[in-house]
User: Fold these one by one.
Assistant:
Number 1:
Amino acid sequence: LLGGGKGEDMEEKKRVLIVEDEKSIVDIVRFNLEKEGYAVLTAYDGDAGLSAAREEKPDLILLDVMLPKRNGFDVCRILREEGDNVPVIILTAREGESDKVLGLELGADDYITKPFNPIEVLARVKSQLRRYTRYNTGPQDVPRPDEAVDIRGLRVDRESHKCSLNGKEVSLTPLEFSILWHLCRRRGKVVS
Ligand code: CA
């Protein structure tokens, strides 16, 4: 049903990009992720992080907020504006709630407050990757991908031709619906 290549995708290592300027944090997170079988990419400032995200297309990004050159919120916002829906977990040293809210408004999927336990980071990474890949790897208990897709609060149901965002119905013309469906079904790929 999902076509060829499924097995290959599942065997491939998931790639996690860490964008963080504190080397000690990078090292400990990298160590724990690699131990669990992830491939780890690193960037030590915001610009390098943005380039790595664009060029390497990682499966997930761990993104510090206070970074040289460009802060993590900017990196996240720019990626979302470019249509990149890679899962992003913000690493924040600040305790203020506004930080968390801002990160989530800019399109981050989760946040972790420093200092953190590496085990917690692993758990969050796994959870986000599970959410993100379930329609690609297809457990049996989710709707068939040719009927409906759920992406970060956006649900597009082809059977009923209905679309909703965070539970609120969105009114679309048939053409808009077709385009949105087409894009959702090919997320992460270039669509002509
Ligand atoms: Ca930092």
Number 2:
Amino acid sequence: MDIADKKSNGVEKKILKFPEGFLWGSGTSAHQVEGGCNNDWTEWEKKNADRLANEAHDYWQEWQQKKFPEMFLPENYISGRACDHYNRYEEDFDIAKSLGQNAHRFSIEWSRIEPKEGKFDEKEIEHYKKVISVLRERGIEPFVTIWHWPLPLWLARQGGLKSKKLPAYFSRYAERLATSLGEVKYWITLNEPEIYSLNCFLRGVWPPQTKNLFTYLLVIKNLMKAHKEIYKTIKKINPDAQIGIAAHNVYFEAYKNRAVNVFLKKTIDWWWNYHFLNQIKEFQDFIGLNFYFHHRINNGFRKNENKIISDLGWELYPAGMYNVLAGLKKYQKPIYITENGLADASDEKRAWYIREALKGLHQAIEDGVNVCGYLHWSLIDFIEWDKGFWPRFGLVEVDYKTMARKIRPSAEVYKKICTTNQLEILNLKS
Ligand code: BGC
């Protein structure tokens, strides 16, 4: 990898080359795109859709309410057919291929594979085998996520993530996948265990809506155990498999570098960004990084600049990709960006965002961080959990009435980067 400079007509052109074999792609998760799911989230959606639609009046700002009136409709919060990706994955992977992508992250819906405790559905296993072979036929490397949040109903009824048996259940499910799905090289065991436990068990906003510090800590421990069990199980079956989690790391900054903020930043960094990874250190071959947020810490509160924000009102600070990656260097593991993206329905900021994130990523590689791939979040629009369908994260737009797919202009910008394995930067010289 190197940086090439070219100068002509007062325009400075910099070319950032990425390492040979770098993987370029995008991702999705089953519940968000497949449609036809039957799990603890689908139950929760039905119970909470009216409430969420009502609360939208207070929750969102006026500009968001005007721009996305769908947020007031209960059906916005019901995953239902979602993007019908369960039936249209071939078409969607054709699009990924046409966009020059050579890697794709997707998740297996546990409730399809094991709809009843200990009873595995061969037809559904066949489905995901086909998904993997359709990707391979298109020259796209699969990154298979074992758990991207929803749980089968039988497990939710036994206490879900709190269940003592969770690690064993996960291990049995993973064993089935590893023996049945054939050659999967990259496995992501758990998606963002930190975010999920926080939202479900401390903030109490996602199912089962518990607010209890002890339960929160217990669930984190349980998920650590589950990860280790899955890791050992898959390694026994396929010692060459590469296994990691997708961690949700945040770029925390100490506001104005004040001593108290520096101390708080270090503490939060330790807990949020590194604790889980430290505990599973011996049980991971790579780190999957989901990067979205930059928070400036001021006396324990967030003080974000919010100069540029997404449709969800999140501060966009893609350059922070550099900082989160630099923080992961100490693990000396290959790193794949397993998510990075934004809600941007009018596609005004996405191309800029990708390019800035990749500049940061490139700088991290220059500084010796072993980053091996970038999977944008996401390939197609989807249901954004308790926010519903209106936040649009896709490189490809989905028309939810017709299910038609439309490639957004930013996807073409990303395509050029994927196919050339480099990023061109133009600077006007003053
Ligand atoms: C989750 C995705 C979600 C994305 C955007 C991540 O925390 O893994 O499922 O769509 O954030 O909010």
